[in-house]
Amino acid sequence: MRKIAGAAVLTAVEMRAAEAGAFDRGDDAVAMMQRAGHACAAAVGRLSAGAEVLVLCGPGNNGGDGYVIAASLAAAGQPVRVAALGAPNTDTAVQARTGWHRPVEALGEAFPAPVLVDALFGIGISCPLDDTVVAALSRLGEAARLTIAVDLPSGVDSDSGARLGCPAPVDLTLALGALKPAHLLQPAAALCGTVRLLDIGVDASATAQVIGPPTLPEPGPQSHKFNRGMVAVVRGRMAGAAELCATAAMHAGAGYVALLGASMPGAPHALVRRRLDDEALADRRIAALVVGPGLGRDDDMRALVERALASEHALVIDGDALHLVTPEQLRTRGGQIILTPHAGEFEALFGRSDGSKLDRARAAANASGATVVFKGPDTVIAAPDGRTRLAPAANNWLSTAGSGDVLAGAIASCLAAGLDPLAAAAAGVWLHGEAARRCGAAFIADDLARALTQARAALT
Ligand SMILES: NC(=O)C1=CN([C@@H]2O[C@H](COP(=O)(O)OP(=O)(O)OC[C@H]3O[C@@H](n4cnc5c(N)ncnc54)[C@H](O)[C@@H]3O)[C@@H](O)[C@H]2O)[C@@H](O)CC1
Ligand SMILES: Nc1ncnc2c1ncn2[C@@H]1O[C@H](COP(=O)(O)OP(=O)(O)O)[C@@H](O)[C@H]1O
Ligand SMILES: [K+]
Q1: Containing H/E element for 77?
Q2: What are the CA-CA distances from residue 273 to residues 122, 224, 259, 276 (Å)?
Q3: Which domains, ranges and CATH numbers included, belong to the chain?
Q4: ipTM of the complex model
Q5: In what order do the strands lie in the sheet with 315-317?
Q6: CA distance 338 to 170
Q7: d(CA 153, CA 172)
Q8: Is 376 annotated as a binding residue?
Q9: 110 is in an annotated binding site
Q10: What is the pLDDT of residues 80-134, one digit of tens each?
């Protein structure tokens, strides 16, 4: 059982292909289900500390895992019962059912137990749960003191994270073989509780991965403030946003940060305030230029964004600037560009679209040729080459004004340090999430920007 940082994230189709690959190499489905079930049972056994376990088994292979779990717990002497929704209907699940030699209760009449294991549905759910199933899951879940989902909580769509009737969050979800998008995308992610990954012997390499602690360059004897990475931030109509962004860039490790368009000195004193003119914008030492935080959307600001696009700098485009560009314009400009839209900015720039957040982020990266950081409580990062990174659940107190400005600064700092745009975006999101974790509750964006120093130090 391991933590999820860096783990591959597979759609249902990719998971079935990975499983098929294992079978092509000589593995078989029954053996794989035995491995999955025994690994789950080991975790359930440890956590239940001898308390009675009720395993709910569905008709497919998720239910098959459930029978193996129950048989394994029984063999270990643990008190365990099974309640099922219909008979198994796959060969592998039928086989697993033969290993359970005790009675099977009907789901609707099952008596609760202190530990509930949900093996009703995993990646194969195809429509919303029936009301009677929702009612049984609710009743048994409320009566349990520990709820554990096998692969996924039953009643969520594996690929999109949409809710398909799942009534309440579980305490722990044991992801089998690889993570699925629903472990990270809302609303499903919030229903999964703590997510842990169990190895079941499939090769789970994928273009999508969970963000983990990044590798960032450390300063050495040869370092000076400019080669550590110089960030410039364009100041617009709302000065505070650009100040926050620039402050964040400094605390995330940039060697030199210039705020362009500011004249009055003030804290932080390490921030260099310069006029915003052609000479400042053309400074070849700038390794990443941020435009957008607190910018404003009037014609003067539009012209400013065009000047930024005309530069040769690597760009982080955030906030209002996302309303002043088009995907085609970005694609034509090329070069290193990171876009950091929240849902409203995403829709303004890329329009309304169907599909999961993962699909939409990938389509946006493809359309713009830029790396897209689609923010929210389930941030998704997509590069134009299809590589994708998903953020693990972050501190919900991040829903505070200015936290996006801080993120833009953190990402710019990592881009200026020489990381490629996908790695820089992922590193910035990680630092931002780690800073928020350290801040605890009711912090403000200024606290968050300063806490980036501790988040950065945690990596050394
Ligand atoms: N690599 C893999 O893919 C592995 C998968 N395993 C398990 O198998 C699961 C996938 O198994 P399946 O593909 O059989 O799918 P599931 O067991 O998730 O569900 C499919 C079954 O549920 C029925 N069903 C779907 N939606 C329903 C609804 N709303 N109401 C009532 N019935 C509904 C379907 O008709 C089908 O019988 C995984 O989540 C995992 O738990 C493991 O056994 C190990 C390996
Ligand atoms: N509920 C939440 N849980 C975790 N992170 C969140 C939540 N809400 C927002 N965030 C994160 O906080 C930041 C908010 O950015 P944004 O909406 O641009 O704010 P602002 O414009 O005020 O700076 C993003 O990084 C986003 O991913
Ligand atoms: K399940």
Answers
A1: none
A2: 55, 19, 5, 9
A3: 12-210 (3.40.50.10260), 230-457 (3.40.1190.20)
A4: 0.94
A5: 208-210, 388-390, 380-382, 371-374, 337-339, 315-317, 286-291, 230-234, 256-260, 272-274
A6: 36
A7: 9
A8: yes
A9: no
A10: 999 999 999 999 999 999 999 999 999 999 999 999 999 999 999 999 999 999 9
Closest ligand 1 atom to 59 CA = 37
To which residue do tokens 């935080």 refer? 293
Closest of 392, 368, 323 to residue 179, by C-alpha: 392
How long a stretch of residues is the chain? 460
Structure tokens at 78: 């643990």
Spatial contact of 246 and 231, defined as CB atoms under 8 Å apart: yes
* Distance from residue 199's CA to the centre of ligand 1 (Å): 18
Residues around ion ligand 3, judged by CB within 5 A, are: 118, 149-150, 154
Quote the tokens at residue 139: 């009743």
Range list of H helices, 25-120: 29-48, 61-75, 91-97
Q: Give how far the C-alpha of residue 189 lies from the chain's centroid of Cα atoms, to the nearest Å.
A: 9
- 340-362 tens-digit pLDDT: 999 999 999 999 999 999 999 99
Would the annotation count 69 as a binding residue?
no
Indicate the burial class of 193 (C-beta count within 10 angstroms; 0-12, 13-18, 19 or more): middle
pTM: 0.96
